[in-house]
Amino acid sequence: MAIFVVFFGPPGSGKGRSLAPRGRPLHSPNLHGRPAPLARGPGDGLGKTAKPIMESGALVARRPRDGDAEGALAEKDAAGGALFDGYPRTVPQAAALDGILAERRGKVGAVLFIDVPDAPIVERLVKRAALEGRADDTPETIRERLRVYREKTAPLADRYRKAGVLVTIDGHRDIETVFADVRTAVGSARKGAG
Q1: Would you call 140 exposed, middle or buried from its count of C-beta atoms within 10 A (0-12, 13-18, 19+)?
Q2: What crossing angle do the helices spanning 155-162 and 91-103 adopt, rounded to 10°?
């Protein structure tokens, strides 16, 4: 049976860096990777649409959607399992993913939850805003994004905890330590598939 890993956490928790610190990615197909920085590009149609949403702190309806997940799972690289970064983002999407994986004789073997308190997240993102000149990372919009995250995405933790696959990783530590924990959890999920 193919084993899939779901990776999630609040905005600013360092999910992307936790998957590939200093350019050393996990050796696992990443079906969805980090979404493109929609509001920082040259202002294409999608960027223009997303920018006011991001600046308000709301959740941008970004890829992947359930149909995109089905397409990605059809790829040859995903046959033996893969890592989902940024999907599912809601409990209904998690239920849809379970159905999609069951049809392919796969299952979610581990859900890695990068847990960071709100205060360090706000501090991190405000610093990032200053370094990168991001208008969407004000303390007010960051707090709103965290509120939306708690409402829409955080319930995934309870769902996956009840399923016995949730692995909580303290993301308020140095990136190398977090990455080591991520790598160990992914390795354990793979062993459980054997």
Answers
A1: exposed
A2: 40
Identify the structural domains of the chain with CATH numbers, from first to last: 2-36+65-193 (3.40.50.300)
pTM for the full predicted model? 0.74
Q: What is the side-by-side order of every strand in the sheet holding 2-8?
A: 83-85, 2-8, 106-115, 166-170
Q: Which of 45-49, 130-134, 149-153, 181-185 has the lowest mean pLDDT?
A: 45-49
How far apart, in whole angstroms, are the C-alpha atoms of residue 140 and residue 54? 12
| Distant-in-sequence, close-in-space partners of 44: CB < 8 Å, separation ≥ 6 | none
CA atoms within 13 A on the CB side of 189: 28
Report how far residue 74's alpha carbon sits from residue 129's, in angstroms, rounded to the nearest whole number.
37
Average pLDDT taken over every residue of the chain:
75
pLDDT tens figures, 149-176:
999 999 999 999 999 999 999 999 998 8
Half-sphere exposure (Cβ direction) of 123: Cα atoms closer than 13 Å: 6
- Which amino acid belongs to residue 173? R
Question: What is the C-alpha to C-alpha distance for residues 54 and 58, in angstroms, rounded to an integer?
Answer: 6
99-110, pLDDT tens digit by residue?
Answer: 988 888 888 999
